[in-house]
Write the structure tokens for this entry.
Amino acid sequence: MSLRPYASTAEAITAAFGKNVTISGKSRVYGGDINDAFQLRLSNGSTVFMKVNRRHKADFFRAEALGLEALASCGRIRIPAVIAYGNDSEYGAFLLMEYLETGRPDRTYWETFGRQLAELHMADTGAYCRQAGCPFPSAYGFAEDNTIGETRQINPWKASWLDFYRECRLEFQIKLAQHYFDPRTLRQAASMLDHLDRWIEEPAFPSMLHGDLWSGNALCGRQGEPVLIDPAVYIGHFEADLAMTELFGGFPPAFYNAYKEVNPVPAGYQERRDLYQLYHLLNHLNLFGSAYYGAVTRIIRRYA
């Protein structure tokens, strides 16, 4: 949480690698749909990964860097190291990170991934909360607001998971999407929010969450290790992360079996899962349009 912005990539590289180190080559990396990305080759033989976007996106990269550092602080799963962020006259807003070579998953990859994600979720978040200035001994939220895709994700500290999820996740997204809804659906959404305590339970412990955990935001590293990228981090109920892994195709059974061996999932999760997936479906409705309307309204009507 001590990140400071740099005025150029050259300044950031000098600070990280020494005053005689410069960029000797650059090649585009494909795959993302929000940022442009490059592999930078440095004069000392190192390689760095760089994301770039418009100049006003520097805070977007700061939030991502804070999230990556929070995940890494738990020490349970591989996270690319953050080097620096800032604004550059040539590139615009930038984020420099460790460049990770990818590998091929072996037969134990998904089991390892499931165990390590469970261990991440079970890691104590108390030290992070204290460092971030949280006013509660056990709380939900994050040090700063960040983004989910390109949507603002608000993260004020709350002592109650139910209050946090209702106000900062579902209610916030429903307000953004209200122009899609007819009056009847808006009434049903309000009823769902009013009766959320029928479904959402306070967890036994707060968890550090990736926040946007679908298959596109996990890599296999060079040694076959799971790696998490592109997070939307906050402290919450681990069921929210688990539900997201099941939304867009899901992960193999070996992942879930290994996860549950380490962190048994409470009874009733299957009844709550759609409510956790609703947050992401609402966000997709707000980002990408009416193709997600049917899925959103089916869940709202189920829980109204």
